[in-house]
Write a structure and sequence with these properties.
The protein is of the alpha+beta class. Helices cover 42% and strands 19% of the residues. Bound molecules: flavin mononucleotide. One of its GO terms (molecular function) is oxidoreductase activity.
Length: 185
């Protein structure tokens, strides 16, 4: 696939086929994705991959948090179960973790570099017929989730990538043409 076609055609995918994604392929794609620009070569990232039974750790944490947040006592169990199932419907989840540098400028550079790794991965996966969505739900930073997947002090989760073979590909949300956004000096 041409790069142009790959960039324009990739979509964030939310619904996946009930089909395993080869963990070795994910590891290989991440190994290419980390060839991202990275000022100071801090390489601040690491990846926690949950597939198969491994997903239960995230799903259990998600259920516990949603049960806690549900205000109606009669609905707690049902709400928790709903979110548990939502997590388990993703064939594979990559939690992208970044070391939090104490200096703001380095931290910002590191976040930007980590975002490029994520997008590299997204494009490489798309080329293989695999979709993903970068999720930044608020509970990424909750202790329950951090403990469930082993995020250490001084690290932050940049996102959970829900990965799988697409069941449905959403329609593209059109972009403002860059020609309208350029100021020529
Ligand atoms: C930093 C970042 C965070 C995102 N967080 C979420 C999220 O929490 N939930 C979600 O459904 N999509 C999330 N997305 C995906 C965007 O909603 C999606 O990229 C956008 O709607 C454009 O669609 P496309 O990726 O199919 O072109 C996120 C994307 C980025 C770059």
């Amino acid at each position: 696939m041409e790069l142009n076609e790959l960039i324009r055609g990739r979509r964030s995918v939310h619904v996946f086929e009930d089909r395993e994604v080869d963990p070795q392929l994910v590891s290989d794609l991440l190994d290419t994705a980390v060839w991202a620009p990275n000022h100071r070569m801090t390489q601040p990232w690491r990846f926690i991959v949950a597939a198969g039974e491994g997903r239960r750790k995230i799903a259990d944490a998600c259920r516990a948090m949603n049960e806690r947040w549900e205000r109606d006592p009669a609905k707690k169990q049902e709400t928790g179960q709903k979110y548990y199932r939502k997590i388990m419907s993703n064939p594979l989840i990559v939690t992208v973790v970044m070391k939090e540098n104490p200096y703001l400028q380095v931290r910002e550079e590191d976040y930007a570099a980590t975002a490029t790794v994520i997008h590299n991965f997204s494009l490489l996966a798309w080329e293989q017929g695999i979709g993903m969505v970068w999720e930044t739900y608020e509970w990424l930073h909750e202790d329950v989730f951090r403990e469930a997947v082993g995020i250490r002090p001084g690290e932050r989760a940049v996102g959970n990538l829900h990965v799988g073979y697409p069941k449905a590909i959403p329609k593209a949300e059109l972009r403002i043409p860059a020609a309208q956004l350029i100021t020529w000096l």
